[in-house]
Amino acid sequence: MSVLVPIQSQSDKQAEMFTNGFLKNSLPGMSKKNIGDFMLRKAVVLKYAKKKKEKKKKKRAKGLNAKQRREMKVFQLKPEHQKYELFLPLHELWKQYIRDLCNGLKPESNPQTIQQRLLKADFHGAILTVARSKCPSYVGTTGILVQEMKHVFKIITKEDRLKVIPKRNSVFAVEIDGFVSHIYGSKFELRSSERSAKKFKVKGTIDL
C-alpha cells in the first residue's frame, strides 16, 4: 500500500525569495546584480567534497647493515654445528642441482660446457679440494663448502674442522659423478648471483 507524503508546493514568488536568500547566504558580500552576473557565468558549489585522506607511505623495514651483522655474528657458524655429517644432505642436494644444471653428466658431455656452467653455479654443498695454492699449507685440504664470501671459501673437513681458504691464488678441484673440474679462485671473487651474468674464459691463470 503506497503512502502519499504531503508536500506543499511553493508559489513562484516564494521560490524566488528562497533562491535569492540562499544565494545571498552562499555568496556573502556580493550585490544582487553581481550575483546575477555570477550565476550566468559560473556554477555554484552547493556542497564541498570531502578532502581525500592522504595515504601515508608505509615505511619498509630496514635490514641489518654489514656492521650490525658482524656485531650480531649472523654469519658465524657455531662450534656445535661444525660437523661434517650435518652437511652431507646438503652435498647430496648440490649434486642433484649440478646434474640438473648440466642436463645430466654423461661420458659424452662436453667438458668445456660443463666447466662454463660450473663457473656460474652456486657451490654451497660442493666438496672442494685445494689442488694448488700460493700457500702450500692449503694444498690437499678437502671439505664441504658451507659458506662462500667474496674473497674466501669456508669448508668443513671430515675431521669436523672449519677451514677458511682464500680464493685468490688458489685452484680448487671439484668432483661429481666421475667428472673432475678445476676452478680458479680468482674467478670466484664475485657473488654467485653476479657470476651467473658474467662471461668467463675457460682457461684460467694463476700466479703461483
UniProtKB/TrEMBL annotation:
GO CC entries: nucleolus; ribonuclease MRP complex; ribonuclease P complex
Keyword terms: Nucleus, Phosphoprotein, tRNA processing
Gene3D superfamilies, per database record: Ribonuclease P/MRP, subunit p29 (2.30.30.210)
Gene Ontology molecular function, alphabetical: ribonuclease P RNA binding
GO biological process, one term: rRNA processing
Presence of keyword Calcium: no
Chief subcellular location: nucleus
Subcellular location: Nucleus, Nucleolus
UniProt-listed Pfam families: RNase_P-MRP_p29
Subunit composition and interactions: Component of nuclear RNase P and RNase MRP ribonucleoproteins. RNase P consists of a catalytic RNA moiety and 10 different protein chains; POP1, POP4, POP5, POP7, RPP14, RPP21, RPP25, RPP30, RPP38 and RPP40. Within the RNase P complex, POP1, POP7 and RPP25 form the 'finger' subcomplex, POP5, RPP14, RPP40 and homodimeric RPP30 form the 'palm' subcomplex, and RPP21, POP4 and RPP38 form the 'wrist' subcomplex. All subunits of the RNase P complex interact with the catalytic RNA. Several subunits of RNase P are also part of the RNase MRP complex.
Membership in a protein family: Belongs to the eukaryotic/archaeal RNase P protein component 1 family.
Function of the molecule: Component of ribonuclease P, a ribonucleoprotein complex that generates mature tRNA molecules by cleaving their 5'-ends.
Protein name: Ribonuclease P protein subunit p29
The species this protein was found in: Salmo trutta
Gene: POP4
